[in-house]
Specification:
Length: about 170
C-alpha cells in the first residue's frame, strides 16, 4: 500500500478501464484485508483499542481493529479512500481534461493537518448535488464504524461535505 502498487481511488483519477471491475474489486479486498491486519497487529497491547478483538472488523465496541492504525493516521487521504472503496461506495472520476465523468466520493486533504474532506461530486447536471446529503451520510456511517470521526458541513454554494479525522484512542 505504500509502494508503486495499489492506490486507493480518491475520486480525482480516471475511471477504471472497461472490463477491469472484478480485478479492481479483488485488489481492494486484498488491500483492505491488509489494513485490517495492520490494525489488529498494531493495536495489541497499545491501549488504543476499544476492547477485546471479536474478529469482526466491523467497528467500535469490542473490536481492537476499530481504531485507525498509525499508517492510516499518517496517510488519512489514502486510508479514508480505501475504507470507502472497500465498503463498495463508488469514487468519482475525471477525464484527461479534468472534467468530472463519474458520480461518487472525492477524498482530499482537509484544512487542518490530519483531516480529510470528503465530497460527493459528479458531472454537471448528473444529480450529485441532490444525492450528496444521503450519500455523504452513508460515507460517514462507514467511516465512524471504522474509528473515524466524520462531521457533515455545508460549504460554499450550499454544497455539503464531510470533515474526517481519526478518533483518538480511548486508553
Amino acid at each position: 500500500m505504500t509502494g508503486g502498487g495499489f492506490e486507493a481511488a480518491t475520486g480525482d483519477g480516471p475511471p477504471p478501464p472497461p472490463g477491469t471491475e472484478a480485478r479492481r474489486a479483488a485488489e481492494v479486498r486484498v488491500a483492505w484485508d491488509g489494513m485490517l491486519q495492520i490494525r489488529r497487529l498494531t493495536s495489541a497491547g497499545t491501549g488504543t483499542g476499544t476492547g477485546a478483538d471479536t474478529g469482526t472488523g466491523t467497528g467500535p465496541g469490542g473490536d481492537s481493529r476499530a481504531v485507525p492504525a498509525a499508517w492510516e493516521v499518517n496517510r488519512p487521504v489514502r486510508a479514508v479512500a480505501l475504507a470507502l472503496e472497500a465498503a463498495g461506495i463508488a469514487p468519482s472520476a475525471v477525464d484527461a481534461d479534468g472534467r468530472r465523468v463519474a458520480t461518487g466520493y472525492r477524498v482530499a486533504p482537509g484544512e487542518r493537518p490530519g483531516t480529510v474532506r470528503v465530497e460527493w461530486l459528479g458531472p454537471p447536471g448528473g444529480g450529485a448535488a441532490q444525492e450528496e446529503e444521503g450519500r455523504l451520510s452513508e460515507c460517514a456511517r462507514v467511516l465512524e464504524g471504522l474509528g473515524w470521526e466524520a462531521l457533515l458541513y455545508r460549504g460554499p454554494r450550499k454544497r455539503r461535505f464531510l470533515e474526517v479525522e481519526a478518533v483518538r484512542g480511548t486508553g
